[in-house]
Design goal:
By secondary structure, the protein is α/β, with parallel strands linked by helices. The protein has 15 helices and 36 strands.
Length: 553
C-alpha cells in the first residue's frame, strides 16, 4: 500500500515553476510553517521552484516567522525569482511582505478574508469565482482599484474583479488562478491520511483550500499536509476527521518548533479546548505570554470599548435575547475583556471571523483564537453569518473617516495592511460600531473624576475630507439602511444620509477646541448633544450585570 507519510523533501519534490499554491493560515493558527520554510530552502538550494503565486485565506505569518521570514530573505535578495505574487487578505503581521509590496517587487491583491475563504469553496465546487455585493463602491471595485495593492498588480491583473448587473443591482465577481497545489496544516493524521485539527485553536479554511486544489477532474492538484502526530488507522473518530484522507497526497510530520498554536503560544490546552476554564476569574488570570493584556483604566482604549459595550447592552434590552457581535482586531477585541469584567459574556456573544463563538478573544499576534468558546465554525461558514446579516452587530477599528462616512481601516501609501475581514463584516452586518482614537499619533490623556482631559493630543487627524482608500462605503451603508456609529474616547458620531452627526461628547471635553478644530470637515450638530455616560470613565465596573439581570433572558 502506498504510504502518504513522507519526508518533507519528497512532499515538495514535484512543485514546479509558475505554480499556484494555496496556503492555509490565520497568523500562526493553521499555518504550515515547516512546509513554507522548507519550500523556500529548496529554492535556495536548487533554484526552483520559481515564480510561484501564493493564495491564502488570511496571512500565514507573524513578524519574523513563516511567510514573513521568507519575505525578509526575498527582500534582501536583489533579483529574487521565488515569489511572483500573492493574493493575501492581510499583510499587517508581515512587515517584510509589506516592503516587497510597497516597493513593487511582487504583485499583490487584497481581497477580504471572507471573500477569499468563500472563493476557495466556490473553486472547489467547479465555479468560475465568487459573486457577491461585498466591495461595491470600495477599493475592491474595478471602478476604483480592483483590489490591487500595488502598481505591478494593477498592470498584471492576475486576480481581477468584474461588475455584474443583476436586476439593476451591482454585484462583483472575484476571479483568480485556480491552485494546483495546497499546503495545509492539521494536528493529527492517521496512517491513511485522514486529518484532524483537534489540537488547533480554529478550523480555518483548511478543507475548502484542499478542495480548491483537488477540483478539476483529470487536472487535479496535489495537497500536502503538515501534522504534528501520526496515529493508527481507524483511531480518529469519523466525527473528528476534518479532511478525509482521499483528498490528501502527502503527510509530513513537523518538528514542534514549526507547529505553534498561535504567534506567542506553542501549546496551551485551553486553546485546543482540551481544558475549558469554568470561571471568569480563571479566564482573566494567568494567560500565557502576551496573549491578553491586563485590564486597566490607563489610557483611553478601555473607555472606547466600554462605550461600545453600553451600545450592545441597549441592543440587548431591545432584543431581549443574547446579542451576537463580531469584534475586530485592536480596540474592538478589548470589548470581550470588558464584557467578562462586567460578567455579561452570557448575554454578549462574540463571534470571531476565524470561527470561535463566545469565550475570551486573544489579541495581538494571537488574534483569532479564544479561551472557552462554546462553538467553532470554519471560516467560510462563519463569514456567512456576517455577509448574510445573521449576527446582530460588529465593532471594527478605523484609521480614517471622511465626511461621507467612508472608512479606511488600515491603508496608507507606505502602509499596506490589506483589508482583512473588514469589508465583508462591515458590508453585511446591520449595525456597525467603528472604534478608534479620535486623533492619530502619540497622545497623553488623563482620566479622573469621571472626566477626560487631553494633556497632549496626537497630531494626525483621523476625521478627514476624503479617506486614502475606501474600504467601507458610507453611501452603500445608508442605501441599505445599516446603523453606523463612530465611537472615540471624546466623541460619538452617527451616520445619516446627510453625513456624520455628532451625538455625544465626553465630560471634560470642549466641543470646538478638542473636536471640531481637529476635524477636516464640520460634522452635523444634533439638536441635543449628550454627555457620554460617566460610568465609562470610572474605576471599577459599570454595573451592567445588575441592569441585565432584570431582563429574565
Amino acid at each position: 500500500m502506498f504510504s502518504k507519510i513522507v519526508d518533507v523533501a519528497t512532499s515538495l519534490s514535484d512543485i514546479r515553476d509558475d505554480s499556484i499554491i494555496a496556503i492555509s493560515g490565520f497568523n500562526m493558527a493553521t499555518t504550515p510553517e515547516y512546509l513554507i520554510l522548507e519550500l523556500y530552502r529548496k529554492y535556495n538550494q536548487q533554484g526552483h521552484p520559481r515564480n510561484i503565486f501564493i493564495i491564502s485565506d488570511a496571512l500565514p505569518a507573524v513578524p519574523g516567522r513563516a511567510l514573513d521570514q521568507i519575505a525578509e530573505g526575498l527582500y534582501k535578495e536583489t533579483n529574487q525569482q521565488f515569489l511572483k505574487g500573492a493574493l493575501m487578505p492581510f499583510l499587517g503581521f508581515s512587515p517584510w511582505l509589506q516592503k516587497l509590496v510597497t516597493d513593487n517587487r511582487v504583485e499583490c491583491y487584497g481581497w477580504p478574508i471572507g471573500v477569499t475563504a468563500y472563493w476557495f469553496r466556490e473553486i472547489g465546487s467547479g465555479r468560475p469565482g465568487l459573486l457577491t455585493k461585498i466591495g461595491v463602491d470600495t477599493f475592491l471595485d474595478p471602478r476604483q482599484d480592483s483590489a490591487a495593492l500595488n502598481e505591478l498588480a494593477r498592470r498584471n491583473a492576475s486576480c481581477h474583479v468584474s461588475v455584474i448587473d443583476i436586476d439593476g443591482e451591482d454585484y462583483l465577481l472575484y476571479q483568480a488562478p485556480k491552485p494546483n497545489y495546497a499546503m495545509i496544516r492539521a494536528s493529527v493524521s492517521d496512517e491513511n491520511g485522514n486529518l484532524s485539527l483537534q489540537d488547533e485553536g480554529m478550523k480555518g479554511t483548511v478543507l475548502s483550500i484542499t478542495q480548491s486544489a483537488k477540483a478539476g477532474g483529470p487536472n487535479q492538484g496535489r495537497v500536502i499536509a503538515q501534522v504534528r502526530w501520526i496515529t493508527k488507522s481507524g483511531t480518529i473518530n469519523p466525527r473528528d476527521v476534518d479532511v478525509p484522507g482521499p483528498l490528501v497526497n502527502y503527510i509530513v510530520v513537523s518538528p514542534k518548533e514549526y507547529h505553534w498554536q498561535c504567534g506567542s503560544i506553542d501549546y496551551d490546552p485551553r486553546l485546543s479546548y482540551k481544558i475549558i476554564p469554568p470561571a471568569r476569574e480563571n479566564l482573566l488570570g494567568d494567560i500565557p505570554l502576551d496573549g491578553i493584556p491586563k485590564i486597566s483604566l490607563e489610557g483611553h482604549k478601555k473607555v472606547i470599548a466600554r462605550r461600545i459595550l453600553l451600545e450592545l447592552t441597549g441592543l440587548l434590552k431591545t432584543k431581549r435575547s443574547p446579542v451576537m457581535v463580531n469584534l475586530g482586531i485592536g480596540i474592538p477585541a478589548l470589548i470581550s475583556l470588558i464584557a467578562a469584567e462586567e460578567n455579561v459574556t452570557d448575554f454578549i456573544i462574540t463571534v470571531l471571523e476565524s470561527g470561535p463563538w463566545g469565550g475570551l478573544a486573544l489579541t495581538g499576534n494571537d488574534f483569532g483564537l479564544a479561551i472557552s468558546p462554546f462553538a467553532l465554525s470554519t471560516m467560510p461558514d462563519v463569514f456567512s453569518n456576517f455577509e448574510g446579516g445573521i449576527i446582530d452587530a460588529a465593532s471594527l477599528g478605523f484609521l480614517q473617516v471622511d465626511k461621507k462616512g467612508n472608512v479606511n481601516p488600515s491603508m496608507l501609501p507606505n502602509r499596506i495592511f490589506g483589508p482583512g475581514g473588514f469589508p465583508v463584516i462591515a458590508g453585511g452586518v446591520s449595525r456597525i460600531y467603528f472604534a478608534g482614537s479620535f486623533m492619530g499619533g502619540k497622545s497623553e490623556i488623563s482620566l479622573s473624576d469621571n472626566k477626560i482631559r487631553i494633556l497632549h493630543d496626537g497630531t494626525i487627524p483621523k476625521f478627514i475630507e476624503s479617506v486614502y482608500k475606501i474600504v467601507f462605503s458610507g453611501h452603500q451603508a445608508t442605501k441599505y439602511g445599516q446603523e453606523i456609529m463612530y465611537i472615540t474616547e471624546r466623541a460619538v458620531f452617527r451616520l445619516t444620509k446627510g453625513g456624520l452627526v455628532l451625538e455625544e461628547i465626553a465630560p471634560g471635553i470642549d466641543l470646538h477646541r478638542d473636536i471640531i478644530s481637529k476635524m477636516s470637515f464640520t460634522p452635523l450638530l444634533g439638536n441635543s448633544i449628550k454627555e457620554m455616560d460617566k460610568r465609562i470613565f470610572n474605576e471599577g465596573t459599570m454595573g451592567i450585570r445588575d441592569e441585565v439581570r432584570t431582563l429574565n433572558i
